[in-house]
């Protein structure tokens, strides 16, 4: 078994990063400054690398069956790395990939880990929720989310997990994190269905704020056009029946 490491060009020959990579997939707890997520499928934490704070995501496989099924597939760390590169090329703000690590034995892949830049800022609901809908910042922020998701789709990609916590507001505006599920589809109908799902999840995010949900949907309709918007709202997400402007 060998350790496969890929490092972004701007982080090559970085002694502190090299020391961290040498530890992985194990991680010295003293490096962790904050655990952001600790679930059966992944551990996400802030880590100190020299004077820079980065984010590390260690992917877990909760069952033997899933572990076996993923041995021959591209790892989620690799997929996230690829997605970060694609969004960077498109000029869409997102986490920047620093490095990824996985153990390999021939074609088999184990213990993937991704290291990326910290996207630090309030999530979509927290940021927009601090303004009344009549405020220009609310509308400009909502439009920016919609336009940047549309730019992702126009590039032939789907995000795949547009939960409100995966859209953060930074100095660059709406920025995207958690890119494990980003995909490019060769089969147009499949891409179209997954694209519609992205939009439905965005609407679903506002389920506890019906007035904001309705206004967000109106802005979506203005951007997407009536035809695509009707396809989005023809089906709900997770059987949630939002109050939406269909006409």
How many domains make up the 3D coordinates? 2
Order of helices and strands: EHEEEHHEEHHEEEEHHH
Measured between the Cα atoms of the first and last residue, the distance is 59 Å
In the CATH hierarchy, the architecture of the largest domain is: 2-Layer Sandwich
- The structure class reads alpha+beta
Largest beta-sheet details: 6 strands, antiparallel
Strand order of the largest sheet: 1-5-6-4-3-2
Percentage of β-strand residues? 15-25%
How would you describe this structure to a colleague?
The structure is a single chain. The protein has 247 residues and is α+β, with helices and mostly antiparallel strands. The chain folds into 2 domains: 2-117, Phosphorylase Kinase, domain 1, CATH 3.30.200; 124-233, Transferase(Phosphotransferase) domain 1 (Transferase(Phosphotransferase), domain 1, Orthogonal Bundle). It is built from 8 helices and 10 strands. The chain has helices spanning 15-23, 64-70, 76-90, 124-129, 136-154, 188-204, 210-224, 226-233, and strands spanning 2-7, 32-39, 42-49, 52-59, 97-105, 108-117, 157-158, 167-170, 173-176, 183-184. A 6-stranded antiparallel beta sheet has the order 1-5-6-4-3-2. Strand 2 (32-39) and strand 3 form a beta hairpin. The longest helix is centred in the middle third of the chain and has 19 residues, at 136-154. The relative contact order is 0.11. The model has no long low-confidence stretch (mean pLDDT 88).
């Amino acid at each position: 078994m060998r350790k496969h490491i890929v490092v972004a060009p701007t982080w090559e020959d970085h002694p502190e990063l090299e020391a961290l990579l040498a530890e992985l997939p194990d991680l010295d707890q003293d490096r962790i400054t904050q655990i952001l997520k600790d679930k059966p499928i992944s551990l996400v934490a802030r880590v100190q690398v020299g004077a820079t704070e980065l984010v590390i995501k260690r992917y877990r496989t909760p069952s033997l069956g899933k572990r076996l099924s993923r041995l021959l597939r591209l790892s989620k760390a690799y997929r996230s790395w690829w997605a970060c590169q694609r969004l960077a090329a498109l000029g869409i703000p997102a986490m920047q990939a620093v490095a990824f690590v996985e153990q390999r034995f021939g074609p088999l892949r184990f213990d993937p880990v991704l290291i990326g830049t910290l996207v630090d800022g309030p999530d979509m609901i927290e940021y927009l929720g601090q303004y009344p809908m009549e405020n220009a910042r609310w509308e400009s922020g909502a439009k920016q989310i919609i336009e940047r998701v549309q730019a992702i789709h126009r590039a032939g990609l789907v995000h795949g997990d547009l939960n409100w916590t995966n859209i953060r507001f930074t100095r660059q505006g709406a920025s995207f994190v958690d890119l494990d599920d980003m995909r490019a589809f060769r089969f147009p109908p499949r891409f179209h269905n997954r694209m519609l799902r992205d939009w439905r999840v965005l609407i679903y995010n506002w389920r506890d704020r019906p007035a904001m949900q309705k206004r967000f949907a109106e802005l979506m309709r203005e951007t997407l056009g009536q035809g695509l918007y009707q396809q989005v709202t023809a089906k709900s997400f997770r059987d949630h029946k939002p109050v939406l402007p269909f006409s």
